UniProtKB/TrEMBL annotation:
Designated name of the protein: Hydroxymethylbilane synthase
Cofactor names: dipyrromethane
Class of this enzyme: transferase
Keyword field contains Transferase: yes
Amino acid sequence: MRDRLAAHHGPDRGAASLSVITTSGDRIQDKPLADFGGKGLFTKEIDEALLRGDIALAVHSMKDLPTQLPDGLCLAAVLPRADVRDAFLSPSAASLAALPAGAVVGTSSLRRGAQVKRARPDVRVVDFRGNVQTRMRKLAEGVADATLLAKAGLDRLGLADAATSVLSVDEMLPAVAQGAIGVVTRCDDDETRALLQPLNDSATETAVTCERAFLAELDGSCRTPIAGLAAVEGDTIRFRGLILSPDGAEWHEVEMTGPVAEAEAIGHRAGEDVRGRAGPAFLDKMT
Ligand SMILES: NCc1[nH]cc(CCC(=O)O)c1CC(=O)O
C-alpha cells in the first residue's frame, strides 16, 4: 500500500508511515470465531484510530469489513483483486476428493465447513483458529488431516508453495469480497480520499459492491454460511451466490447477470431471491 501511494504520488506527497494495530479478532485465539463473532471484530480498534485521527487511512481485507461501515468512515479505494479461490492444504491427501473416509478437516469458517460437508458428508469438520502459520503448524502436528485457506492470504505471505492444491470456485465458492483489499478513511478527509482515488480498481470495486449487497440483503452474520462471487466482463456483471446449512445438507444457489451499472441492485435481488427460496425457517435456524 505504501509503495502504491509512493508510485502514484512520488516520494514526498505519497509518503506514508505504517502503524500496525492488533484487533480483538487477532487477539482472541482460543474461541471459535462463530461464538464471539460480531460485526467489525477485525476492524474495531482500527476504526477508532481513524476516528481519533491517529491514522489517515486503514488497509483491510474486504472480507473482514462489515457491510455497513461505522458512521463517519468511508471506503476510499479498492485495490485490484488477487486470487479469489481457497487453497487446500494437506500433508496426506492431494485434494478434498482424495481425503480418506472419516478424515478431519480443520477450519474456523462456517462457509468452508459447510461446503466441505456438502462435497464430503463423511468428513469431520473441526474448529481451527489462529493465523496462517498457527494453522499450518496444527496441520503438521496432525490435529487435522487438511485445512483450507484463502489463496490470496497465502500468496501475500509468500507461502503459495504451502498449498497442496487450489479449489475451483465451483467446489468452494469464496467469501464475499475474498481477495480484495479496501482502503478506509474518514468520509470528510478529502485530501486522503483524493490521494487514494487513482489507486481504485473499478472492476474490483463493482464486483465487491455486488457481493456485499448480497451479504447485506441476507443480513450475513458470522453464523450464516454465505458465499458469493461476482465477475465483471466488459459491461456485464455475473454474480453467483450460495447459502448453506452449517452441515451442508441443504443449500440454495443463485446466479444473476446484468449491466455493471446495476451491480448493487443485482446483489440485493440475488439475496432476496435466495432468501425467498430458502424460506424463513432456513435462515432463522442459523442465527
Ligand atoms: N478471515 C481471515 C482472513 N481475512 C482475509 C484473509 C485472506 C485474504 C483474503 O481472503 O482476501 C483471511 C485468511 C483466510 O481466510 O484464510
